[in-house]
Design goal:
Order of helices and strands: HHHHHHHH
Mean pLDDT: 76
Number of domains: 2
Strand content: under 5%
Number of helices: 8
Low-confidence stretches: 119-128
């Protein structure tokens, strides 16, 4: 069995008959490391996606490793697998957050529409999602009830349809959900149509 450096050189070969088996051996050798890291990082869901990200880490390690450096190949593989698993974890979290906030934006929009439509005494089947003009009318009717900060969050969340995590980047020390709930309460208590 060739050592890691020989396998690495074979994996970088231009000959398909040489590089395919070498890459397969390297992947098989480091697959247990992928699963160990997944366990350490608490990655219990979407295991196939994380395992695939780990294999991508191994392939990047094969491609990026510099033979003339004093770093062992195994250390470099460990670093690359960990990097890819963390990137995949961030992507998964962002997708989940995005789905949640889209659903929340839609729900909040329909709650406002329901509130406004109830003011007009329309039937539930006639509910429509609010348009930008509706939000602007609400904002204008609340001009003395909301402070500048709350009006900015109202504008970003309802009119510009920004997600809570995007607003949180602008106001990192603020509980945006709490402010939105306060705005909804102000709307319920003060908007007269």
């Amino acid at each position: 069995m060739p050592n890691e450096i020989e396998l690495l050189c074979q994996a970088r070969s231009n000959n398909k008959k040489i590089y395919e088996p070498a890459i397969s051996v390297i992947i098989a050798q480091y697959t247990p490391l992928i699963h160990k890291m997944m366990y350490k990082l608490g990655l219990k869901h979407n295991k196939e996606d994380y395992a695939q990200a780990g294999v991508i880490g191994i392939l990047k390690a094969i491609e990026d490793y510099e033979l003339d450096k004093n770093t062992k190949f195994g250390t470099w593989v460990y670093y690359k697998i960990r990097q890819e698993l963390q990137l995949e974890k961030i992507k998964s979290e962002q997708v989940a957050i995005s789905r949640y906030h889209k659903k929340l934006n839609r729900k909040t929009s329909y709650e406002l529409a329901e509130f406004l439509n109830n003011s007009y005494e329309t039937k539930p089947e006639d509910y429509k999602q609010l348009q930008i003009d509706d939000y602007l009318a609400i904002l204008n009717s609340l001009n003395l009830k909301l402070n500048i900060f709350e009006a900015d969050i109202f504008t970003r969340y309802f009119i510009l349809q920004e997600h809570i995590y995007q607003i949180r980047k602008i106001y990192p020390k603020t509980d945006i959900s709490e402010i939105i709930n306060k705005i909804l309460e102000v709307i319920r208590n003060n908007v007269k149509l």
